[in-house]
Amino acid sequence: MRGESGGGELISFSPIVRADKMSALLMPLPTARKHRRRVVFSRMWAGPSAKNPRVALLLAIESSCDETAVAIVRGEAGERTEVLASEINSQIALHREHGGVVPELASRNHSLHLRGLVEMALRDAGVRIDEIDAFAATTGPGLASSLLIGSTAAKGMACAAQRPFLGINHLEGHLLSPFLAETSVPPHVALIVSGGHTLLLDVEGPGRYRKLGGTRDDAAGEAFDKVGKMLGLPYPGGPEIEKTAGGGNPNAYDFPRSMLHDPHLDFSFSGLKTAVLYTLQKANGKVSIADLSASFQQAVIEILVGKTLRAARESGRQIIALSGGVSLNQALRSAFQDACAKSGHELVTASPDFCTDNAAMIAFAALLRHLAGECSPLGEDIHPNLPLV
Ligand code: ADP
Ligand code: MG
Questions:
Q1: Protein residues whose CB sits closer than 6 Å to any atom of ligand 1
Q2: What is the pLDDT, as a whole number, of residue 52?
């Protein structure tokens, strides 16, 4: 368990026993004998990572939602991390006909594809499983049944290979992804914009995060997806709206920029979503989908850029980092580039390959922790609502 430092609350890696809905579904507590055996296991595998290795080969699994992903990275303290393999099996096509993610379908497909992806990653990376120094998996936040598949598989491999296991917060993966190609993670202000999260953080360094603001209702990606559905576009709505917006007028509709000028750094996108719905209803379908998409996208961009630049000014950080699926949006990237060029901030964005869910970002977060001598107990549970700070 880590404490607090630099005014920021730090991530806890101690096993947390949660009395939430999940616990009712879990098996009864282990007997005393089983429990004793578990303690011996965690002592056995807590050992290797306590040596603060200088170089390491990490295999990580990401299965928090509808992407099954496996990556292998090689890293060394102070050097650029090498992504040797990054395999992703996207289930988007599978869930598209349902208009959103169906949890049971997602977990079944994770278990069907995981083994093949691990084998493919090892082959592409040109390494044997016994050369891997540590195994990692996303342990939260996400869909419980999906998280369980990846974390159980990673623990199983760690057990068999007698190597450490690291449970990684999915949001920490996104947060650090812009620095995958860098030699260090400098102090900065971070905006994570994904399907499930819109989070502004002050980052002192790896593991030292302070929340500055977050969404009070829908995440930015969720708003893109819901508006996409209203406009009759395929799931997920984000990339479809971006395509449609290309031919539209971003000033055609004056949609609300909720909370943009409020003194806090929180976000709200549900009013904007409702404004699009009312516009559609009022026009009785006689609207330009391109104009609606462009105007909606412009409102989201102005809110995200405005709040993030203010966060950077207020916290005195020179670097702004952008991550998560929505950060793939080219209009959003250009708006950030223009704003940063004007204000003198440096913009660091995650590579397009590592914006939506992937395992390379999880492996990178795990690598930094492994090189710092950390590991998680094999008894660590998944945490569907795991906060980052
Ligand atoms: P999560 O981790 O919450 O599952 P991801 O980081 O995988 O989310 O990102 C998925 C989200 O990104 C979806 O909401 C999707 O609509 C959005 N997205 C992907 N590409 C774009 C784009 N070009 N423009 C806007 N949103 C996008
Ligand atoms: Mg994600």
A1: 65, 194-197, 221, 224-225, 236-239, 242, 324-326, 328-329, 356-357
A2: 65
The closest-lying atom of ligand 1 relative to the alpha carbon of residue 170 is 2
Judge whether 129 and 157 are in contact, CB under 8 Å. Answer: yes
Residues with pLDDT less than 50, the chain: 1-50
Domain of 265 in residue numbering reads as 187-350
Backbone φ and ψ for 67, nearest 5 degrees, come out as -120, 125
- The CATH number of residue 144's host domain is 3.30.420.40
pLDDT (tens digit per residue) in 21-68: 323 323 333 333 333 333 333 333 343 444 567 899 999 999 999 899
- Whether 382 is covered by a domain: the verdict is no
Mutation probe of ligand 1 site: the residue of 226, 242, 330, 356 with most atoms within 8 A of C-beta: 356
Q: How many angstroms is it from 357 CA to the middle of ligand 1?
A: 9
DSSP string, 124-135: HHT--GGG--EE
pLDDT digits (tens, 9 = 90+) for 2-20: 222 332 222 223 332 222 3
Distance 103 CA to ligand 1 centre (A): 18
Rounded Cα–Cα distance for residues 329 and 352 (Å): 10
Residue 299 lies in a domain: yes
